[in-house]
Amino acid sequence: MDRVQIKICGVTTIEDAKLCADFDVDMIGLNFYRQSPRHLEPEEARKIIEALPRHIRSVGVFVDANAEQIRTTAKETGIETVQLHGNAPPEMCRELAGEYRVIRAFSTGRHFRPENAAAFPDCDSLLDSYDPKLRGGTGLTCDWPAARATRSFTRFLILSGGLNAQNVGQAIAVVRPQAVDACSGVESGPGVKNHGAIKEFIAAVRS
């Protein structure tokens, strides 16, 4: 398997973003969902993006946003990759994929089927745990067998949901994703990144 990429999501400060860059992560997630404790205003996100090397991909995280809201935020911040949670239909994802790299997020709740990802051929797929209220950052692991089965229906699979330095090795072995995504598993509190935990997580993935 090729080198597994690493995404650290819910980054809220320039200091944390620079630390991720120093540890050579591939992506950072910037959250624009107002109900999230990790929410950023566009001007805050732009400052973080401007402080990063160009090879670090900044991912804008949206929940139930329409195409124009996404475009407006992308223009204000400079993000080139968008991660869509909630009710993002295939038609909108296909349209946005002509302008951005699109990650379609799925929650592995009881209604999820791996073949759902096939409706989004122009998108990467992110598999997360299900929570009736929260959109990511739950600290709960997702359904790893369902995530593995999804590989057959998507071009690029990102595994998320409760990953940390202790379980990411097993998660990679079971699911074989192209990338892994950590949020609450590398925090001291919501939106407060633990630098030691980030370092340990990256070391666990790279090993």
| Class by alpha and beta content | alpha/beta
Order of helices and strands: EHEHEHEHEEHEHEEEH
- The overall pLDDT average reads 93
Poorly predicted tracts of residues: none
Q: Describe the main β-sheet briefly.
A: 8 strands, parallel, barrel
Using DSSP, what is the number of strands? 10
What do we call the CATH topology? Answer: TIM Barrel
What does the overall shape look like? globular
Quaternary form: single chain
Q: Domains counted in the coordinates: how many?
A: 1
Provide a short characterization of the protein structure:
With 207 residues, the protein is an alpha/beta fold. It has a single domain (5-206), classed as Alpha-Beta Barrel (TIM Barrel), CATH 3.20.20.70.
Your description of this structure?
The strands form two sheets. The protein has an eight-stranded parallel beta barrel with strand order 1-2-3-4-5-6-7-8. Strands 9-10 form a two-stranded antiparallel ribbon. The chain contains seven helices and ten strands. α2 packs across α3. The chain has one domain: Alpha-Beta Barrel (TIM Barrel), CATH 3.20.20. The mean pLDDT is 93. The chain is globular. The protein is an alpha/beta fold and 207 residues long. Helices cover 30% and strands 22% of the residues.
